[in-house]
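In this section we turn from sequence analysis to structure. A common task in structural bioinformatics is to predict how a protein folds when a small molecule is present, because the ligand can shape the pocket around it. The inputs are simple: the amino acid sequence and a SMILES string for the ligand, here zinc ion. Study the lines below before reading on.
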Amino acid sequence: MFSVLTDFDRLRVERFKQATEEKLRGVRCPEHHQAPRVRFHGNSIRDISISLTGCCSRVMEIANARIGASWPNPSESTSAAS
Ligand SMILES: [Zn+2]
């Protein structure tokens, strides 16, 4: 019954994951030259959450800034028209 909605949601989640990974691509710790690792939790775009792991707080800040630049805001998708 919910298969269409679920598939749609799953697609959005996949897109979100890919976009997030894309943003983190090339991010390296300036000190340890390690890439941060990202894990996703949740199956719908509404309850998905990200956990980041990195070698130190420095790389976490960089990764957070990258991702935070366009964090999805499901509750107000198109209402913010300048
Ligand atoms: Zn580091």
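The chain has two helices and two strands. As an exercise, try to locate the residues that line the zinc ion site and compare them with your own expectations.
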